[in-house]
Amino acid sequence: MKCKYCGHEIPDGVLYCDACGNEVRIVPDYNPLDDMLTEQVRFSIDEQNEGKEDPDYLAYDRTRVDVRSNTGGRTSGRSGATGRITGVSARTTRRTMNTRVTGDTSIRATGKTTVLRQTGRTGNTGRTGRTGQIADRTGGGKRSVSRKKKEQKMARLRRKRRIVILVLILCIAAIAGISYALYINSYTGIVRSGNNALKNQEYSKAESYFKRAIKKNKQRPEAYSGLAKTYLGQDEDDKAENVFLDAIDSQSGNADLYDACFQFYLDTDQTLKIPELFDDADDSVQEQLSEYDIDRPTYSLDDKKTYDDVQQVTLTAGKGMTIYYTTDGTDPTFDSDKYKEPIQLEEGENDVRAIAVNKKGIPSSTAQKVYKIVFPIEEAPAISPSTGQYESSQTIEIKVPDGYTAYYTMNGKTPTTSSKKYTGPIKMPEGETLFKAILVNSDGRSSGVTTRNYVLDLSSSKGNSDTSSNISGSNSDSSDISTSDSNTDGLGTDTTTGSRSNRVITGKGGASE
């Protein structure tokens, strides 16, 4: 259809013209004038309404026309002229009326035409002003009816709006109720209920909620964390840790569970357990949790080599890392020595273990190297006097270097650390003595054995004193180890075994080394 104002084509179902904005008239305009005039006339000629005021719907403006007056319809004007009004007619759609009214005004109605006859005097023109009054009333009526229609339309719109809002509220409430019911029984809702119970220290209820959530979804870590906290709240630390370890045993490829377990260790100051668990994890898990893969410290010395002198080893780690170490064979902790300078290695075995810790407090696995430092061993000890036969009192002395301890025997047996410890000069016993001695360093390593064969005869004749003096004069200190003394009495020569000198002594009794 087309707009009657601008001629623009209007699609079906559209109530306003897109071009001019005027309202589309689907039905012809309603003109209430005809009905209002007919009702006024009918009201005027009804005898029962005589003396009553016009109803509100007949009062088109403030001017009221009284058609029921008995004045005879006379009016006076300035000129005093009289006139007669006939032929005032009005069309009506109502049924035929035939009524007679007393007075000077009469109305005859036949068919659809009503003729109103009035006699009386008029003003200068001889015509009444009734036509203008009716026109005024018609305009006021249109405005009143239009205003009432708008008010009724707005009331209907308000009612519809209230109904729509009420329906929307009911729908939203229903959706919210359904959503809440679904949420409270979902994994997230159950975990939240467990956390609320845990917050209120209702441990039994919290444990029930978390176990229920785990049954609902075994892969997600939140319920495991909540259950572990529940056990921690009851001082059951081992049980809390086993919550994660048992889950990881059955889900070795679940990186989320490993991450939750690592966080549990961080929260409970058990970070030293992280490297061990991380190293045992699958490669896929290690790739996903690379932030827990901390490089171990590196050492400046090779532990496959044996060193013959004291050494210093330097430890290094990544930027921002802190190194803790031990040298007593125990694993380092956060209470161990913090590395600040090279570590001094002493003689023997040095077991150096170290860890690197990043800024988050996550440690590396323990690095370990054992260094062996062996000092060169001293040769067999130097003993004086040398082998020989003596006729005066003598003392036996062993030269002991720093860092060594000397052990000796006087019965021909090879000395050990269980033998007598040398503390000072020893008085040579009378008769024949086979004296042996060794040196032992702080590391427990023994030197070679030095042997001396002594014969002390204090009852010998004075004539042998020169021989004894001659033998005694041949005593020496450490040079005796590498020299051989002759003895006319067949005592033999000094013997050193286990060192660069290896000489055999034969003397009385056939002793040999």
Automatic annotation (TrEMBL):
<feature type="domain" description="GH29D-like beta-sandwich">
    <location>
        <begin position="305"/>
        <end position="366"/>
    </location>
</feature>
<dbReference type="Pfam" id="PF14559">
    <property type="entry name" value="TPR_19"/>
</dbReference>
<feature type="transmembrane region" description="Helical">
    <location>
        <begin position="163"/>
        <end position="183"/>
    </location>
</feature>
<dbReference type="Pfam" id="PF13290">
    <property type="entry name" value="CHB_HEX_C_1"/>
</dbReference>
<feature type="domain" description="GH29D-like beta-sandwich">
    <location>
        <begin position="385"/>
        <end position="451"/>
    </location>
</feature>
<feature type="compositionally biased region" description="Low complexity">
    <location>
        <begin position="459"/>
        <end position="501"/>
    </location>
</feature>
<feature type="region of interest" description="Disordered">
    <location>
        <begin position="118"/>
        <end position="152"/>
    </location>
</feature>
<dbReference type="InterPro" id="IPR059177">
    <property type="entry name" value="GH29D-like_dom"/>
</dbReference>
<protein>
    <submittedName>
        <fullName>Chitobiase/beta-hexosaminidase C-terminal domain-containing protein</fullName>
    </submittedName>
</protein>
<keyword id="KW-0472">Membrane</keyword>
<feature type="compositionally biased region" description="Low complexity">
    <location>
        <begin position="119"/>
        <end position="132"/>
    </location>
</feature>
<keyword id="KW-1133">Transmembrane helix</keyword>
<keyword id="KW-0812">Transmembrane</keyword>
<feature type="region of interest" description="Disordered">
    <location>
        <begin position="458"/>
        <end position="513"/>
    </location>
</feature>
<dbReference type="InterPro" id="IPR011990">
    <property type="entry name" value="TPR-like_helical_dom_sf"/>
</dbReference>
